[in-house]
Specification:
Layout: E1 5-10, H1 16-29, E2 42-47, H2 63-75, E3 79-83, H3 92-101, H4 104-111, E4 114-115, E5 121-125, E6 134-138, H5 139-143, E7 146-156, E8 160-162, H6 164-167, H7 176-183, H8 187-201, E9 205-215, E10 223-233, H9 236-246, H10 255-262, E11 274-276, H11 305-315, E12 318-321, H12 331-334, E13 341-344, E14 347-350, H13 360-364, E15 370-373, H14 376-381
Parallel strand pairs: 1-11, 2-3, 2-7, 3-4, 7-9
Antiparallel strand pairs: 1-10, 5-6, 7-8, 9-10, 12-15, 13-14
Helix pairs in contact: 1-2, 2-4, 8-10
Length: 383
C-alpha cells in the first residue's frame, strides 16, 4: 500500500534544544521512533556529507539534527553509525577531514555514536531494477538493521533538486559514482537509476534538514536559504514531492519525481499526500531560486525522439571555469566522469565536446570556481 504520510514541524534555528524538541515532535507525527527501532539494533544514519564545508555553509546535513536523532536512537537501546560516501575516493584519508569539518566528529564525541570507517563494498543482484540489475553498495548499508536517510534540502545543477532520494546515491562507494554518471549521461536515465537505488536500499525513514536549505546553483555553490522546517516520511519519494512543493518546484521539473510517479510510488498531486504537523496556511511555497538548468531541458512541444535529442544537446548548459577563483586543487579533473578536464598551466580546461553535463565539477569545487551557463538560445526560449 502506498505510504502517503509526510510530517513537517517548524524549526527556525539549529539551537540544540529547539532541534531536539522539533525532532521529537516530528517523529511523534509518524507514530514515534520506537516503531522503527528495537534495542540492540544497528542503525545507519545516511547523512549528506558532500564535501569539507562547515555546517553554516548549508552544504551538508547539520550536526545538530544528527545529534538529536542519535540521542533518541540510543535512548531506545540501539547502536548508531554515521556514514556517507561523498564524491571522491571512499577512503579514510578522504573522509577524515570531511567528518571533522562538517561537525560529525564532535557529534560522535558527545554522543558515543560511531563514524563509519568500513570501506568495504558489496555487489547485489537486483532483477527488479529498471536501470540497475546489479548494485554495488558500501557494505555497511546492508549490514545495518535500520537505515535512516538524513538529507539536506538543496537545489542541484544536474537533477534540479537533491533530497531524500538523491541522498541515497551516497551509498554507492566513492568513484563508482563517476561510472554511473558516465553510463547514464541523460538526466532521465540517471534519475531512474536513483529511484532504483532508493527502492533497493529501502530506508526505514527519511528525514529532511530544511531549517536552512540551499537555493540557486546547488548542491555546493548556492546560497543558504532559511526555510525553517524539518520533514520526515517513510516514503522518500513522498518526502521529496512535499519538499519540492515547499520550494516551488513542480514534479515536471524534477526528473526523480517524474520517474517515481511513473512507477506509482507517489501520487501525481501534492494534495493526495497526508501532510501532518503543519497548519494549512504554513504549508505553501516560498520564494526560492532554482538552478538555471531547470529551464533548459526539452522544448515544451512533442518532437520525434531524434529531433528532441538534437535540441536537448543544442540547448543544454555548460560549465564555465572561473580561473581567478580557482586554487588549482584539481578536484574537478580527478572526479570528471568522462575525464574531459585537464589541468593546463595549473588551471582546468574542459573539452566540451566530451562533456556529459553531469556538473560534478561544479558540485565538488570547494571554491565555487565553476558556474553553469545557459546558451543565448536557451535563455531566449526558456525565460
Amino acid at each position: 500500500m502506498l505510504n502517503k504520510k509526510v510530517a513537517f514541524i517548524p524549526c527556525k534555528t539549529y539551537q540544540q534544544n529547539e532541534v531536539n524538541q522539533a525532532v521529537q515532535q516530528l517523529l511523534a507525527e509518524l507514530g514515534g521512533l520506537a516503531q522503527y527501532i528495537k534495542p540492540g539494533q544497528k542503525v545507519l544514519l545516511k547523512v549528506n556529507l558532500l564535501m569539507k564545508k562547515p555546517p553554516e555553509a548549508a552544504v551538508t546535513t547539520h550536526p545538530a539534527l544528527v545529534e538529536a536523532l542519535v540521542n533518541q536512537i540510543q535512548a531506545l537501546g540501539a547502536k548508531t553509525i554515521i556514514a556517507d560516501s561523498p564524491g571522491g575516493p571512499f577512503t579514510k584519508a578522504w573522509l577524515k577531514g570531511i567528518y571533522q569539518e562538517t561537525g560529525m566528529v564532535k557529534v560522535a564525541k558527545r554522543t558515543g555514536a560511531e563514524l563509519n570507517w568500513n570501506f568495504e563494498q558489496q555487489e547485489f543482484s537486483y532483477p527488479e531494477g529498471r536501470i540497475l540489475k546489479h548494485i554495488t553498495l558500501a557494505k555497511i548499508v546492508k549490514e545495518a538493521d535500520v537505515v535512516i536517510s538524513l538529507a539536506k534540502l538543496k537545489t542541484h545543477g544536474f537533477t534540479i533538486y537533491t533530497g531524500a532520494v538523491k541522498n541515497l546515491f551516497g551509498t554507492i562507494p566513492g568513484l563508482l559514482k563517476a561510472d554511473y554518471h558516465l553510463r547514464l549521461d541523460d538526466v532521465r536515465d540517471f534519475s531512474d537509476m536513483l529511484v532504483d537505488i532508493a527502492q533497493f536500499v529501502k530506508p526505514t525513514l527519511s528525514i529532511m534538514d530544511a531549517v536552512i536549505a540551499m537555493e540557486g546553483p546547488g548542491p555546493s555553490a548556492g546560497e543558504p536559504k532559511s526555510v525553517g522546517l524539518l520533514a520526515a516520511s517513510e516514503n522518500p519519494h513522498g518526502l521529496d514531492l512535499a519538499c519540492c512543493y515547499i520550494i516551488g518546484l513542480n514534479p515536471e521539473q524534477v526528473p526523480t519525481l517524474q520517474k517515481a510517479i511513473a512507477r506509482g510510488l507517489i501520487p501525481k498531486n501534492i494534495r493526495e499526500l497526508d501532510i501532518r504537523g503543519i497548519a494549512d496556511e504554513e504549508f505553501k511555497p516560498i520564494p526560492f531560486k532554482v538552478p538555471a538548468t531547470s529551464r533548459s531541458r526539452h522544448l515544451p512541444i512533442p518532437l520525434p525522439a531524434k529531433l528532441d535529442d538534437f535540441f536537448y544537446k543544442l540547448l543544454r548548459p555548460k560549465p564555465i571555469f572561473i580561473h581567478k577563483k580557482c586554487i588549482n586543487c584539481g578536484l574537478c579533473a580527478r572526479n570528471c566522469p568522462p575525464q574531459c578536464i585537464e589541468m593546463i598551466a595549473s588551471k582546468p580546461q574542459a573539452d566540451l565536446t566530451r562533456c556529459i553535463r553531469c556538473f560534478c565539477c561544479q558540485e565538488l569545487c570547494p571554491e565555487q570556481a565553476v558556474e553553469i551557463k545557459r546558451s543565448k538560445l536557451s535563455r531566449l526560449i526558456f525565460r
